[in-house]
Amino acid sequence: MQNVLIQVFGLLVAAVLFVWFFKRIGLPPILAYLATGVLAGSHGIGWMAQSHEMHFVAELGIVFLLFSLGLEFSLPRLMAMRNIVFGLGSLQVVVTSIVFMLILLLLEHSLLNSFTIASLMALSSTAVVVKLLKESGDLNQRRGQLAIGVLLFQDIAVVPLLIVYPLLAQSGSEEIVGALAFALTKGALVCILLFGIGKWILPKVFSEIALVRTDELFMLTTLLVALFAAGLTYLFGLSMALGAFLAGMMLGESHYRHQLEADIRPFRDILMGLFFVTVGMQLDVLYVLNSWYWIITVLIGLLLFKIAVLAIAAQVMGERKQDAVSAGIMLWQMGEFGFVLIALASQHLLISSEQASFLIAVGVLSMALTPYLIEKTPLILKKLGLLSHAGQYWQQPATSSPLYQNHVVICGFSRVGQTVARFLKPEAIEYVAVESNPILLQEAKAAGEPVIFGHVNQKDILKSAGVERARLVIITFTDFEQTQIVVDAIKQIAPKVKILVRMRDDTELETLKELGVTEVVPETLEASLMLVSHVLYMSGVPMTRIIRRVSKERRNRYKFLNGFFTGDKLDGEEASSDRLEYLHVIALPEHAYAVNQKISELKLEQRRVSVRALRRQDREIDAPSSQTILLAGDILVLQGKPRRVERVERFLLDGME
């Protein structure tokens, strides 16, 4: 037991140091984990002994990775990608396998040996590619979808290969067709079973779990579901990763998708790191040094050929050359299932021990080089003449749902959050709310409100709400301890975003300001101001004096309200409230009277109202020119006295004087 603890401690120390060093020099963590494995394995210092249990635990990292990937792909989306999965995916696997097999036959390898090596080299690494796509944000780009579609077919193709290899080693290989048919039947049955469970049972289970409002229970249920699905497919002789993917895909349409992904992520990342450590432990450094020229030759051939096959096949199917080549660069390496197939083939003597070592070396090095090549993809495309400048590569629009941009994030969608949303909507200010009450969530969703399920103290949920692109975050609950955690999480993601906090009083005002909160709204102050307004009005004090005193009190308390009342000239009790100028925002719908007219043609200055600013497609225009032509969707900031602004708003919308 003591030796195991020392080994684990040493592994953690090495992993921390390598990840820190690799990040400091700009390299991805995957390479750090591979380097840790090389150092810890039997071919390095050798303090970690490989075991079946360690490999099994490491494989759970792939299970959780595929579960989180399934959350990104609902069944309708997968059906929409069927041409990529079963068209491009099958084309890539079949063509690559046949060509590699012919090359090996020309090099005088046996038929079985050639088929075995060619089929496992046709596969790519789901673990590496999906992790890099998630980190880069390319999962929703077309190039990312091409890569994911091909990887899904490759994961499905692993199943018949796991069946075929043992049968090829037996004399009765005529039983292959029957065995494959039986395996496919089992696969279809387990997929239908998982589909039924995921479609009709799991949403109800998570609804009940969410009602309890316990983070630990929700997380435990998430782990249980992922492992149950993986174990079910494993019992049927299929890939554990395939079962996890199907379970995630069934839950991808539920309201709990973001919270599920946030809960699974810590376990996924840790176990994925362990998986890459076990991969690195299989690399024999001395063997690589002795056979470096052959390994480099195969790596170059693998790189050029797999990119060419995928690029040509994708273009034949109508994809852009730029996306086709990008997907090829992502998928040129050997995959983690290749190591499983290498072990199986070695066990049944389909490949020699020297060939197994060679393939492991090629697989590890190809996986290690992939992050660097993906990072340099824009430069490669530019060299090939597919991009005029590298920046275009990152500026492509996503093909999935649009990202939240320049919006307001509402943390909590109870009465206060709903009130805020009700005022934002008429002003055409986009917002998204985060709520952890499942009943409230379902009611809001039914009403068409942009609400996601999750706990706002988790950074993954805040990222799902687009906090780093928001103009403002509003925290509507009053619990101080919880607010501190949320503010800290927000500041780690978006240090410059403005944060508005609701509190019962201002006793924690200074602490919240030090944490980076922009403004604190205490309920006691607002209640006092409204109460005293009614008292003064019922006591006969003129309304203008009440407005002046309340406005002064608010300006003294809230610095961001200073200057809001631009015409605050209420010098006497006889002053009319009509002398109070203010700013008002209106959005021009498609059929508004002012659309396609110049500001000068509307003659707003004769109505004593001015256009202070204009917002068009997230671009702010201060003091727009009188020659500016107004378009549908424009948001105008008008300044004037209340009655005049009201008349101008009717005029701009309906043309009524």
From TrEMBL:
Family of the protein in this entry: Belongs to the monovalent cation:proton antiporter 2 (CPA2) transporter (TC 2.A.37) family.
UniProt topology in membrane: Multi-pass membrane protein
Listed transmembrane segments: 6-23, 30-49, 55-73, 85-106, 112-133, 145-168, 180-202, 223-250, 270-289, 296-318, 324-344, 356-374
Entry keywords, A to Z: Antiport, Ion transport, Membrane, Potassium, Potassium transport, Transmembrane, Transmembrane helix, Transport
SUPFAM superfamilies tied to this protein: NAD(P)-binding Rossmann-fold domains (SSF51735), TrkA C-terminal domain-like (SSF116726)
Limits of the RCK N-terminal domain: 405-522
Chief place of localization: membrane
Organism field: Pseudoalteromonas gelatinilytica
Keyword Cell cycle: no
Segments forming domain RCK C-terminal: 570-654
This protein's record includes keyword Membrane: yes
Pfam families from the UniProt entry: Na_H_Exchanger (PF00999), TrkA_C (PF02080), TrkA_N (PF02254)
Superkingdom in the source lineage: Bacteria
Protein name according to UniProt: Potassium transporter Kef
Taxonomic classification: Bacteria, Pseudomonadati, Pseudomonadota, Gammaproteobacteria, Alteromonadales
Localization: Membrane
